[in-house]
Amino acid sequence: xxxxxxxxxxxxxxxxxxxxxxxxxxxxxxxxxxxxxxxxxxxxxxxxxxxxxxxxxxxxxxxxxxxxxxxxxxxxxxxxxxxxxxxxxxxxxxxxxxxxxxxxxxxxxxxxxxxxxxxxxxxxxxxxxxxxxxxxxxxxxxxxxxxxxxxxxxxxxxxxxxxxxxxxxxxxxxxxxxxxxxxxxxxxxxxxxxxxxxxxxxxxxxxxxxxxxxxxxxxxxxxxxxxxxxxxxxxxxxxxxxxxxxxxxxxxxxxx
Length: 256
Prior knowledge:
Blueprint: H1 5-11, H2 18-46, H3 52-70, E1 73-76, H4 79-86, E2 91-95, H5 102-109, E3 115-121, H6 128-137, E4 140-142, H7 147-159, E5 165-169, H8 187-195, E6 198-205, H9 207-210, E7 221-227, H10 239-254
Parallel strand pairs: 1-7, 2-5, 2-6, 3-4, 3-5
Antiparallel strand pairs: 6-7
């Protein structure tokens, strides 16, 4: 069964009174661009300092938390799931994708003890400003002109990562266009098999109710994030069978 309409209504119930929401949006409009520029330019000044990456990582996470607060959006995850993520090692994180809010939400709810990063198109590294910031945040550049090259680049990056650091992959490849999960691509399974890492599946609920496709102003409300038990690839079965098992596990949680 699909998520019920009553669950959707609960997710989109405003968490702040209207006057407070208006004040927060005004603060975001007035000071948000300046704060964004500060976060973007910091790596140009401080990237060579000792311990920069850890400090900058926390700055980016706090920036995402502040953005959600100013948008009157509350993102929640159960304490026991946060504790499991904090102790998680040697994994790849796999997340469903429903909204532009998903990345900010993930940055907010995942505990600081769990380091993770995203893959991004290598073209972004052509800009010095973006290159320095992306390198500071530990993003992985992926050349998408060749699928095999992109997969090899990603695999090599994961092999070189510290145990407590994980790359985040969206197996649907893009934001889902239906109320259900989209079809999964095999990239996460292939990388996990090649590197020997496990997969940590995460489900984001209701972010598309607050910011659907084609909309630019998010609604106030609540996003629920659910960390599922560790998924271990079965090397005795085919990649497609492993992929189907992973999707079934995430679908069961998504439809609850």
